[in-house]
Design a protein that fits this description.
Layout: H1 7-16, H2 20-24, H3 28-37, H4 41-48, H5 54-82, H6 95-119, E1 121-125, E2 139-144, E3 157-161, E4 169-177, E5 181-185, E6 188-191, E7 194-195, E8 219-223, E9 228-232, H7 242-245, E10 248-249, E11 253-265, E12 270-271
Antiparallel strand pairs: 1-2, 2-11, 3-4, 3-11, 4-9, 5-6, 5-8, 6-7, 9-10, 11-12
Helix pairs in contact: 1-5
């Protein structure tokens, strides 16, 4: 059966799902290869997330993706033009096959994304200023989800399920671990009786609030429960943290913040280029 190929449809199919245009053109093997190539981006992201050249790797990744889509679309259009007068329909030139490819791509993307998010790395956007200056509003961060990253050390910035609302995720710094005694006197934090050196902390309010009014500046002493973490925000005077709602159970820890992969300043509508790739 002669059914000439439509160049615009071949290009549109490849743009919608890489490889689909090639399958439409009767190039099943090439279409399968092109289709599978897109999933190599996942291991590339995992391997490159810890690189000190993350900014350049991200730029390279964008360029590779752009050229990849450009190639598959142009290739599909070029081949389809060659079949605009005559084309012998293949057995797999069926709408059901095209739908199957799209469904398969969706399943693979969902499965791989979920596996990576649960076991390797997950992206988060910072919506609040409670950890300034380490994390600014508009920073997009990569969080290490390996098992070891879910057992953080003192000083690590961690992502966890908010104990009072599990559907919300918070980012705070680990100040105390199970068994530690934490006390705050006049804004200064004492761990096991010794004042902590916290170069990352900022205090933007000079006045102190008495313990009777708020636990912000005077707190404890309390003992951190086993398998729990006492967490505080770096922007200490403007952080809703363990001083107000207690410790974080180890089971609620999702991972340790690694790097900033994107940063957008909404106030000036500009990219914070110097923060991209910065290690947290």
């Amino acid at each position: 059966m002669n059914k000439p190929r439509k160049w615009w449809l071949a290009g549109l199919l490849s743009l919608f799902e890489p490889g689909l245009g090639q399958i439409y053109n009767g190039q099943g093997r090439k279409g399968l290869i092109v289709f599978l190539l897109q999933f190599l981006l996942f291991p590339a992201m995992i391997l490159g997330r810890n690189s000190d050249n993350l900014k350049h790797l991200l730029i390279l990744l964008v360029i590779v993706i752009a050229f990849y889509y450009l190639f598959v679309v142009i290739d599909a259009i070029k081949v389809a033009i060659g079949f605009r007068a005559k084309y012998c329909v293949k057995k797999y030139n069926k709408i059901s096959v095209y739908i199957l490819v799209v469904v398969l791509a969706g399943i693979l993307n969902t499965t791989l994304s979920a596996h990576i998010k649960n076991n390797y790395v997950q992206a988060y956007k910072i919506p609040a200023a409670s950890n300034e200056p380490a994390l600014l509003v508009g920073d997009h961060i990569l969080v290490d989800r390996h098992t070891t990253a879910r057992t953080p050390a003192l000083g690590d910035l961690i992502v966890f399920e908010f104990p009072k609302g599990p559907k919300r995720d918070f980012v705070k710094r680990v100040i105390g671990i199970g068994g530690d005694t934490i006390e705050i006197r006049n804004k200064a934090v004492f761990r096991n009786g010794e004042k902590m050196n916290e170069p990352y902390v900022v205090h933007r309010e000079c006045k102190t609030i008495p313990a009777e009014t708020s636990p912000r500046d005077f707190f404890g002493p309390i003992r951190v429960p086993e398998d729990s973490y006492f967490v505080l925000g770096d922007n200490r005077d403007q952080s809703f943290d363990s001083r107000f709602w207690g410790g974080v159970d180890k089971k609620r820890v999702k991972g340790t913040a690694e790097r900033i992969y994107w940063s957008w300043n909404a106030q000036s509508a500009s990219v914070r280029w110097k923060r991209i790739g910065k290690k947290i």
